[in-house]
Amino acid sequence: MSSQASSSKKTAWAPIAPHIPSGLPRISSDLSCLVLYEPLRPNYNKQPIRVGTHGGNTFWAPPNLKDAYIRDNASAKLFRWKGGRMTSITAGDLNKCTTYAVATIFTQWPDTDHLLAVTFDAEKKDVVEENGGWKVLSFDYVTRPGTQGLYSSVSVAGGRQQLAAPGSPAWVPQLLPRIYNYDPKPNRPQPVSAGLIGDLALLFALPAFSAQPGSLSQVLMSCMQPNKWHKHQLLHGQDEKERGMVVTVFLDPDNKEGSTKSQLDRLQDGGYGPFYGP
């Protein structure tokens, strides 16, 4: 697998860099993995439109049958994430790579601002057989020794529906819709955020919806930085109807010493600091 040279053209926007507090652990420059992005859309010839209800409201739901999808292989993109930065690479034989994590994620716009996800490829497993249905993103609150503040750990099985503390303006609402942001409590001190960690496939999936599909490479390679997200000024992508993505994270076969399961587990758990900083 070989790296492709990035474009030398100047962009019409400038990323806005957040401040990362000193003292937090940092992502190692040798840590890496491969990340594959594959757009997915419903095939209503295989399964009619599904509508769910909650609190008297109705909303669109992705198909729950694996045969009811169309994968846009022509638009699939592969990247190497190393030391917190993304580089576009040419795909080799991914069947020989070790899969670390997978997620399928869909927008629900305009019915809700939620993102729905499962932690597998929805074109390969029926959602109903795997876990009983699509899940909204959720969070667990995590503290780590020597780190001030609370981490929000994103997953589809968390115990909370909102962040542990106010999310950074760099990634709320660009990566996470405002519906997931911390809800201030009257007469209570506001908690301090240590940043966002959690399921690695979901963390990599969020930027895919931060802009329009054609801007994916530009956004990933310009805005994803070590322990932080650089906010861009492009047109948002979460408000595109029925937009879906399968994101697969692989161990990096060209970096066996810096791409192990235990290292990526540590990354998910905040052992290298926040994936997206406060």
Provide an overview of this structure.
The protein is built from four helices and 15 strands. A hairpin with a 2-residue loop joins strand 13 (224-225) and strand 14. The chain starts with 31 loop residues before the first strand and ends in a 10-residue tail after the last helix. Strands 1, 4, 5, 6, 7, 8, 9 and 15 form an eight-stranded antiparallel beta sheet that branches. Strands 10-11-12 form a three-stranded mixed beta sheet. With 278 residues, the protein is mainly beta. It has helices spanning 127-131, 200-205, 216-223, 261-268, and strands at 32-42, 50-54, 57-61, 69-71, 77-82, 85-88, 99-107, 115-118, 135-136, 138-142, 150-155, 193-198, 224-225, 228-229, 244-250. The relative contact order is 0.24.
Give short descriptive properties of this protein.
8-stranded antiparallel beta sheet, globular, mainly beta, 278 residues, 3-stranded mixed beta sheet, single chain
Describe, in short, the structure shown:
The chain is mostly beta strands and 278 residues long. It has helices spanning 127-131, 200-205, 216-223, 261-268, and strands at 32-42, 50-54, 57-61, 69-71, 77-82, 85-88, 99-107, 115-118, 135-136, 138-142, 150-155, 193-198, 224-225, 228-229, 244-250. It has four helices and 15 strands.
